Amino acid sequence: MDHSHMGTSMFSPVNTDLARRYWYSIAGFVGALMIIRAVNFYQSQRRLRRRAANSIECPTKPSNRFFETWATLTAVVREASAPQLHIPLRGFSWLTPPPLGRVIALIVYWIIIIYMMTIDVVVKDAFFWERIGYRNAWVTITQVPLLYLLASKCSIIGFLVGTSHERLNWLHRWVGRTIFVTASVHGWHFYTDWVRADFVEYQIKMMPSIKYGLGAWAILLWTLVSGLAPFRRMAYELFVLQHLLSAIFFLWLIYVHVPISAQYNVWFAIAALSFDRVCRTVLFVWQNVKFFPDKAKCKGSQRIGHQAQLKAVGDSITVVTIKDVHFTWRAGQHLYLWIPRIGLAEAHPYTIACAHQLPDTCICNSIQLVVRKHSGFSRRLHDFAAKAGKKEHVTVFASGPYGSPPRWDIYETIVLISASTGASFTLPILESLLQPKGANCVKRVDFLLAARQGEEIGFYVSRLHELIERAKAIGIELGVHIAVTQGPSTFATDKTHTADVASASSSGSNIGRPTDEKVARVPVVDIEQSAPANPRKRLSAASADSHVFYSSVRPDVDAFIRGPVEATGGETSVVVCGELSSLRGTPRSGPRTRAIATRKPPTPMEQLAQKVGGLSLDAIADKYPNCRPELNPFDFYRAHLSNVLADITGVDPKIIYPSLSWTSSLDKGDLILAAPALRVKGQKPDELVKQWAEKFPDNDPLFEKPSVVNYFMAFYVRGTPIVETVIRTIQKYGREYGSNNFHGLKDPSDPSKGQKRMIVEFSSPNIAKPFHAGHLRSTIIGGFLANLYQAAGWEVIRINYLGDWGKQYGLLALAFEKFGDEEALSKDPINHLFQLYVRINAEMTAEKEQIEKRKQDGEDVTELEANSLDEEARRYFKKMTDRDPEALAQWKRFRDLSITRYKDTYARLNIRFDEYSGESQVPEEAMERIGQEMVEKRICKEDKGAMIVDFQELVPGKEGKRLEKPIVKKRDGTALYLTRDISELLGRHEKYKFDQMIYVVASAQDLHLKQLFKIIELLGHKEIAAKCQHVNFGLVMGMSTRRGTVKFLDDILRDVADTMHETMRKNEDKYNQVANPEATADTLGISSVMVQDMTGKRINNYTFNMAAMTSFEGDTGPYLQYAHARVSSIRRRAELSDEDLAGADLSLLTEAHAVNIVRLIAQWPDTVQNTLRTLEPTTVLTYLFKMTHALSSSYDHLQVVGSERELMKARMALYDAAHTVLGNGMRLLGLSPVER
Fold first, then answer.
1. Cα–Cα distance for residue pair 277/273, rounded to 1 Å
2. 509 phi/psi in degrees, rounded to 5
3. Which residues cross the membrane (predicted)?
4. Are strands 572-578 and 413-419 parallel, antiparallel or unpaired?
5. Is 653 helix (H, G, I), strand (E, B) or coil?
């Protein structure tokens, strides 16, 4: 490849660029796998946290749409990756291609390589052969570092993506084969070019590097052939040694062969190889050399290596127990074992066959390896152990642990399937799951152990019986299935033999003692027929343990897996390992883990639908718009009632369904129908309802017989069905109950079309000015609306449009130059800048008065005016508009500091923003363009030097007169707010392509927003104007602080927090129970402000009343928090788990107070739906207070603590459901519910 003539240099820039792109691609793949690893890590931690908190019955089930999608994609990818075409011919099974997933990965890799080999080189000219040859040389050398990275046991790639050398080694082999192909193409094209020019011999004489290239190619060929399975297995130790030497020699050859510009690839590969070897050497020394061994504390400890006991079990199994191992490992990892006395130059990998001990059981650990005799080392090992007996100890060296097994404790059900010594992989997994190390999601484990001969698994059987007892103690359901398909069915011939095995085992992980001598001999029972029908059926009365099942036939693995998968409510992991020819229905490669999606049990609504004939949940959703019975139980009730009334009235149920409305209170019914709404002619409405009520069936499963008032029919739900359905639905959805993501879909019938996009602009304070009451109302209402639309499934973008531009910022910059304090600015930027602004304004006002006075006295004030603060501010702002770097930097600093401070304040209110926009972000060019367009379309006209919009000329009638004549540009050419808002609105639509945008602005801006929307329409964007909505609100009267009349939000919140803290201190006993009273007081204070703001309709003004809003009496924020905390207190005192509540007998809830609470919480999804129509926070707040009143009146009638246990569970399930709804409503409003 070292060709120095003109042709090669001509190709270099393109080739080096391709090399860069190759590594960008590798980095992209690694990055994608890192993201997948991060998501899986987050998901596993989330499951464990939910399990630790006992917050949900099935913590392994996906809890939201993202994780449901993620689980589905993971399952699809895993299943699609598994198929594999096996070559069944004896002696040729090694030709079996990789599984489909690996094949796809290889195809992707080869596409990249082929692209690099061919792009822009297949051009028929004088350089055709040379260009292709040189390109493939670059493709070859570029791949070399990856080859060595993938070969490393201490793999950097494996570390980043969370996998091990074993899972990457297959790719290492295929990359090597790909390099051989590209190197062959490289050499063949150069050789062909030389043959055509007839100077092959000349080139070889003149360019010695060619010989080195041929040598490197020969090594690639040798490595390819010797790496094939038949040759590799002949003498594995020799293969490893020659492979390492070949890899080193190959690097030297290509280093000499390639030009200097490409040698960095060789150094990259050398670095990867060196890093691996150094890491492994350091690890080996650290694990096998102890300078000060403590033999008194740990028997068997020695300075060099480890003392090991070898035990021959039967004719084919050797148990190696390595003592005094001072490192940890995870179930499923392996190590390399070197025993110089048996194999001087041999180190072999073996799975660690025991779980790591708990930290407090011993200062050291022992490792067990179970080695099955084959040939070579394993045969010599077994022969040595059989001859030596128990007294013989040998020195061994261990290197590891290697491997990156997944977490096993994040699944609800684990199915472990192993054949013969494959149990050395699965049994440690089981042991690790039964060692309490914190949260563990596992509830059930099914363990299948199969072998041809009993002696192959006798070592494991003795350990399994003790594990069953341990599983019982920690509440994990464990079933063990053992199948011996040939030979005798006993696992040990006598008690002594079993005890010996147990002795060998106990040193490793303190397990394995036989629980009963009868374990050694058990009758054989056919689990193949019994297990699928009843996986937990005891199969033999003579068995020592009712959880152990035995068989003498090959088990059907598909049937074995199906039982636990269908029984679980969460996610299942299936682990398979061993020589699987003794099993039916399994893949032939192992070990393999797979997460399996479970068949879900019927949902509460499905159970209800089964009780009501003629109704299908899917049919209901198709028939009625926005009807989602799975999410809203009352949708099902309305659909059923519509069907019943359609038969009675003859009216189309689609007309009846929307005519069924709420009642104002429960005593008036749950649903009500006004006869005139059905438009039935010929009879008076009051007579019609009487006839319909009489015809209503007495035995309707969901409704009592209706009552009639005037021309209304009121319907009352039956207690038992509504109680069972609603509580179970709330238990299922938890925080998602009340949300309906279908509302936010562009096409509810096709979710793949995506979500609608909503922009909510709210808060919008002015930089360096007080966060006044109007901004507070905008913040509270806007945050609520954003939450509301997000709960409805919209993609919500929250924008804070700051007042951050204008001449006042020039004045502010002057003030900071004169009076600014850096420390005060960093500590409280908003307050400090405001004080500066007030001060400079006062000076400017006094200066103007002085100039005016001198002007009246006849003095020449030209110079004074030219140097006045007002003129300086104008000039400074002109510098800003001209993009002066220094002026913009100072302005940006003020803006950024203010935003940082605002974020802290918003966080206290549970408010966040996706974008901090502002007047400054509107480009001057965009405003100029809009102004020109308005002139061209005659929307604006000149009036006394300014540009105005005369709506009376543009819009006929009263509407034009009401819109008045706004100015869009002043006489000096300065654009006003309206012009900026027009440009900003159109810019947002271009950027976000929103489906709707809401401006949350005070009612004082009603006219401004109407003018804005109408101008957008006149500009020809009627469809954009139709997407815009102004949500207005009234004023807050009398809002001031203890420190004066400046209305900073932080001061207001501090005042109410102080008031709440003082109120809390009045009850010393309860105050002492609160973990963080200051934080709780702050939360209560914020709740006080927000609830008072939302109590009335938005448009109404209200008076800020500190005493009323901080009271625990009446419908206030503190009372709402108290109601939530009281239910939390009942749950704590009841000491019931989520499982207890999930299994509660809800038929016990027959009291009127219990049924009424359920009737109320059933209305929550409808309340959210109605709020989308009203956009009034008070709609939610009124509902929540109605519910708190029902809860308060029920406590004396529905005692929880002290009741009979089953009744206590049922009542607590009721209150817990109410607690969920109350919390959901508070969070929707933007409140943070407190627990005490």
1. 6
2. -145, 20
3. 22-42, 100-117, 137-162, 174-192, 212-231, 238-258
4. parallel
5. helix
Q: What are phi and psi of 703, to 5 degrees?
A: -125, 145
Residue 375 and residue 449 in contact, taking contact as beta carbons nearer than 8 Å: no
Question: How deeply is 628 buried, as exposed, middle or buried, from its count of CB atoms within 10 A (0-12, 13-18, 19+)?
Answer: buried
d(CA 586, CA 538): 25
Rg, Å, the chain Cα set:
39
Give tens-digit pLDDT for 736-781.
999 988 888 888 877 778 899 999 999 998 876 667 656 788 999 9
Give yes or no for a contact between 156 and 203, defined as CB atoms under 8 angstroms apart. Answer: no
Sequence-ordered list of residues with C-beta below 8 angstroms from that of 843, at least 6 positions apart, any chain: 869
Q: Which of 185, 246, 508, 463 is nearest to 352 (CA)?
A: 508
Burial of 444 (0-12, 13-18, 19+ CB in 10 A): buried
Q: Which residue has the tokens 């976000």?
A: 992
Tokens describing residue 707: 């009552």
Helix (H/G/I), strand (E/B), else coil: 486: coil
∠797-799-804 over CA atoms, to 5°?
165
pLDDT tens digit sequence for 883-908: 888 888 888 888 888 888 888 888 88
Q: Tell me: cis bond preceding 923? Omega within 30 of 0 counts.
A: no
DSSP 632-653: -HHHHHHHHHHHHHHHHH---H
Distance CA 1153, CA 1158 (A): 9
Amino acid type, 1197: H
Q: At 1124, which helix (H) or strand (E)?
A: helix 1117-1134
- Alpha-carbon span 637 to 309, nearest angstrom: 72
Q: Are strands 393-402 and 1036-1037 parallel, antiparallel or unpaired?
A: unpaired
Strand 334-338's sheet: what is its strand order? 347-351, 334-338, 393-402, 306-313, 317-325, 365-372
What's the rounded Cα separation, in Å, for the pair 79 and 703?
47
- Position of tokens 């399975």? 229
Q: Which residues pair with 321 in a beta bridge?
A: 309, 368
Whether the Cβ atoms of residue 697 and residue 691 lie closer than 8 Å to each other:
no
Question: Max Cα separation, the chain?
Answer: 126
Q: Is 903 exposed, middle or buried (0-12, 13-18, 19+ CB in 10 A)?
A: middle
Active site residues per annotation: 769, 772, 775
Is pLDDT above 60 for 522?
A: no
Contacts of 344 (CB under 8 A, 6+ apart): none
Q: Give tens-digit pLDDT for 921-931.
A: 888 889 999 99
Q: 255-282 burial string, b = 16+ CB within 10 Å, else e?
A: bbbbbeebeebbebbbebbebbeeebee
Length of the chain: 1236
Residue 1038 CB coordination number (10 Å): 10
Angle made by CA atoms 497, 500, 502, in degrees to the nearest 5: 115
Kindly state the tokens that stand for 1048. Answer: 């900073």
Which residues, other chains included, contact 1152 with Cβ-Cβ below 8 Å and sequence gap of 6+? none
Among residues 150, 363, 314, the alpha carbon closest in space to that of 247 is found at 150
Beta-carbon contacts of 120 under 8 Å, excluding residues fewer than 6 positions away, are 14
Residue 904 DSSP one-character state: H
Query: Within its chain, how far is the Cα of 660 from the centroid?
Result: 40
Please choose, from the candidates 476, 471, 451, 470, the residue with its C-alpha nearest in 3D space to the C-alpha of residue 461: 451
CB 556 within 8 A of CB 584: yes
List of residues 6+ apart from 703 with CB closer than 8 A: 637, 641, 644, 696, 715, 716, 717, 718
Q: How many CA atoms lie within 13 A of 520 on its CB side?
A: 15
Verdict on whether the full-model pTM lies above 0.90: no
Per the CB < 8 A criterion, the answer to whether 1219 and 1128 are in contact is yes
Q: How far, in Å, CA of 916 to CA of 932, rounded?
A: 28
Q: Specify the 3-state DSSP secondary structure of 46.
A: helix
Place of tokens 């005593």: 667
Across 619-638, average pLDDT: 84
CA 610 to chain centre: 35
